[in-house]
Sequence to fold (883 residues):
Amino acid sequence: MAEIDLAQNASLRQLIGVVREAAANKTALRISGGGTKDFLGGPLQGDVLDTRQLSGISSYEPTELVITARGGTPLADVEEVLAAKGQCLAFEPPRFEDGERGASTVGGMVAAGLAGPARVSQGAVRDFVLGATLLNGRAEVLSFGGQVMKNVAGYDISRLLAGSMGVLGVICEVSLKVLPVAPATLTLRFDMDQPSALRRLNEWAGQPLPLNASAWWEGTLVLRLRGAQAAVSSAAQKLGGEVIPNELANAFWNGLRDQRDEFFTNAQAALAQGATLWRFSVAATAPKLALNGAQQLIEWGGAQRWVVSDAKPEQMHAAAAEARGHASVFRGRQHGSEAFAPLSAPLLRIHRQTLQAFDPAGVFNPQRLHPALS
Amino acid sequence: MSDVATPPAAAPSPPRPAPSAGERAARQAQVVAALQAVLPAHALLWHSEDTTPYECDGLTAYRERPLVVALPETDAQVAAVLKVCHRLQVPVVARGAGTGLSGGAMPNAMGVTLGLAKFNHILKLDKYSRTAVVQCGVRNLAISEAAAPLGLYYAPDPSSQIACTIGGNVAENSGGVHCLKYGLTLHNVLGVRGYTVEGEAVEFGGDALDVPGLDLMTVLVGSEGMLAVVTEVTVKLTPKPQIARCIMASFDDVRRAGDAVANIIAAGIIPAGLEMMDKPMTAAVEDYVHAGYDLTAEAILLCESDGTPEEVEEEIGRMMDVLAGSGATRMEVSGNEAQRMKFWSGRKNAFPASGRISPDYMCMDSTIPRKRLADILLAIAEMEQKYQLRCCNVFHAGDGNLHPLILFDAADPDQLHRCELFGADILETSVAMGGTVTGEHGVGVEKLSSMCVQFSPEEREQMMALKYAFDPAGLLNPGKVIPTLHRCAEYGKMHVKKGLLPFPQLERF
Fold:
């Protein structure tokens, strides 16, 4: 564990003061790192609480497969340190650089809970969070979890922070499980319509194959194999398809991961014309969504589907429910309740009481996680 | 937020005096009468000869007789029992197979034990979606057995998998010998259905990979029955690897064995399993299973690779190079499935083998950073002298998860007392090394005091507040996992701030 330098400490002290004052006055705080994901979730409210002053990698031990970093640490810094030791964040969080105040941070990565193409095989952000230090709404600094792989001492509050959109508090520090970069990667391309792609993806996923990521768009299915050299080679032989040269493939997967590939670029253009980019999280086996004419990109073996459409939100939510999942506005003009899937009555009650338990004055990112929570 | 329930004030208060026999009998009559209206006669037990089998779980040193045992057979009955208990404000302790090792299912003297063993049906098994929908009382191993014809299995494999139920696995976030590569229960469960403390149906997770709002599954899994009652679980099934092979490596020094574990990880290998046994443990299991373990070794590592035949051959070669380079004195690779199972037989039978060489044993479960494996083993050896008790050690070495088995005779109160001190010493030493008091067995009642050492009062209060968010009246498995301020004050040991960001200079407000 690195020494805690005084400047760092002063930063935290200052944040504690800000939170205490906001709680006393019941004024909203908008927790923000680089501000790269301001587009995501409910409306932005309150004064910015800038986490970037809590920055730096606290400890990294490759043989422990754990890295610990302050919440405001640029994600790029973490990835650079890991790459130097042949390790990585296996869930491939998106890296945005166009924020109001800079690039994606580790705290924002955890709070947003977004994961990239490998999520389906490797797990989500929450699966890699081992521990966290939180500044809650009572201005208390609390640590949960730890730096070890297995830990059931008390409720696993550190993992609850993944995808919480900051409503439980400021993520001051987080410990993440890291993994070695696999020795071999190979990308295959197939011409296939959507129903066939969905069927094949689900069938392949039931076999012991080193499937790591998939993407289907406009009649093309792209599949990434990753693992031991021998496993990747034998799977490629078995699956067929056209091998895409690694350099080209890497550019594609990175573009998909960081949402700047052709589909997302087109989506941005459509957004400017008033369309909306919806994210569908559904059962991987659900058939093609009943949405006519909408542009669709399918990831995660069928479990994540991106849809560009100007259809009414009710239609989106109905299609998602039919596919045994939920839909939400990812980028678009809607930020109210129509942009989110509703919570069931008991879950809404538990959510409200959970927020109350962490942030009694309702200071942090009100309505950002879900407009029904205020 | 005026519609939100205010959690009860959690001021340090001494425990309430135990109710008198008369009070207990009156309460029992009241609860039995109310439950008779919602359960068939055979599903309700309250005479002591019937409730005695429920007085403890796998942690037999702690016992309590439940007020009533309810054994519902349908979801509607579970809901009805919870509604009755909520109306009468009776504590509810859910229970699966009772194999837990930390007293998580220990009854409440004034509460209902909700036995869910009758929920033992596999509702759906689907190759195409690689999922199984099972009732909470289905045994862990039964899922893998049922999925085997589909070429699939349920990855988490706690040593008690032949008996433990999936509902209990969810409650404890159970691991097993393969979780370094395949994850814990949380990573292998997609959704759960069950009931809130009020008896209202609720669903966490689902068929998609994420949910709107908070990912409450992260806290529900591992919550030891304190947040909701789970009756149905959708688990992820994993394609069975084509083959698995295991290396058994001997070391003449525990430090070299510990270093070998770190070296394997440093080489970029994530073994399917990586386990360690010390010399006394090896002797105990060899006597029990006759697997041909090296009795002269100070430590034995079991190191497994799974996947395609080519992949396994490649990985076994790399692992053997690392083990040899780390000073292994003897290595043997399983040549077939029977031999691989034989290698594992001792490891999987470590607990019963300990039961044969001692009247009683207490199993610890702390986790430490892998690099401290040898340090903790040496520290435990010193503790054996200090407390004058023997200890055998098995470790999920790949995860840094320790299972020291302290041997003692519970008939001797002094031995039990020394054993408890020994156990607490191991846990607190683990916390001081940057670890945690429990890796997979849970806190239950056993490790309540050690939680005072691992967490600050504010952290424990935050956990308690989260519990009240799910269960405002605190009726679900009360008194487990989170120690009261009063208990910690009596325990008198300081909170040791290790691991994450300590901010040691900061005053706490």
About this structure: The CA atoms of residues 29 and 368 of chain A lie 11 Å apart. Chain A touches chain B through 110 residues (CB under 8 Å). The first helix of chain A runs from residue 6 to 25.
